[in-house]
Write a structure and sequence with these properties.
81% helix, single chain, mainly alpha, globular
Length: 247
């Protein structure tokens, strides 16, 4: 079990809470969770702590959202994402700990730019090609981003929106996509040593915060404007990402 200072515990608990909220449908909270966990835990170890927390939330989400999964889309993305995960695993092997926080900051800023571009230019989604090559590009980027930073939600979301997947199928497919992908990543995390007995003991303590986040997220999503909420999250994520870059 890591010997955390009070501030580190606070950041880790808030990050776990945000991961739960993200799986309840408030996807932008996942980026904040990644950033807060990177602030709580130095280096690549943060990725290993985040992954089991995401899987615990994925299991609950997949249990709820299981009737409208587009399995054909999951099969189409399987090999590209697997190749991206292997690429991300290699990056984590060769990357020094000192380079982890700046890399997370740049990747989150890239995800934010993608999200804001889609909001500012709605036609961007329909302009992108519907081709196997595009599926491979989207899958590779999803695999790399999820292995390195657990921050691939915007890429996978963009891909499914471009294909005009209806909202219900979108939510259910995303839940099962990331459950399968995150389970696939576990052996790589174990091999890297970022998933270990100590990190799992920390996960056990943080799971209640994930479940609380799931419950709060389900309450909030019925009561707030998704557009306004996402704008606030994007702004906070941008500030946090810049903080990681300059720290």
């Amino acid at each position: 079990m890591p010997d955390f200072a009070p501030l580190q515990w606070a950041l880790a608990v808030v990050a776990a809470f945000f991961f739960g909220m993200s799986k309840a449908g408030l996807a932008g909270m996942g980026l904040l969770g990644v950033l807060f966990m990177a602030g709580a835990i130095p280096g690549k170890a943060a990725t290993g702590v985040v992954l089991p927390l995401l899987i615990s939330a994925d299991l609950f989400a997949a249990a709820v959202f299981r009737t409208h999964v587009q399995w054909g889309q999951l099969r189409r993305l399987a090999w590209p994402i697997a190749a991206g995960v292997v690429t991300g695993w290699w990056l984590l092997r060769v990357m020094p700990d000192a380079g982890y926080r700046p890399l997370i900051g740049w990747m989150v800023l890239g995800m934010l730019a993608l999200q804001m571009g889609r909001q500012r230019f709605p036609r961007l989604d329909t302009a992108l090609p519907h081709s196997p090559a595009f599926a491979w590009v989207a899958g590779l980027l999803t695999g790399i981003a999820t292995m390195v930073a657990n921050a691939a939600g915007p890429i996978a979301s963009t891909y499914l929106i471009i294909l005009s997947v209806p909202m219900r199928q979108f939510v259910h497919t995303m839940a099962w996509l990331f459950l399968c992908v995150n389970l696939f990543k576990v052996p790589f995390g174990v091999q890297l040593g970022i998933i270990n007995v100590g990190s799992l003991a920390l996960n056990v303590k943080l799971v209640p915060a994930v479940l609380l986040g799931l419950w709060v997220g389900r309450q909030l999503i019925e009561r707030i404007s998704p557009v306004a909420f996402n704008n606030v999250v994007l702004g906070l994520s941008a500030v946090s990402a810049v903080w990681l870059l300059v720290r």
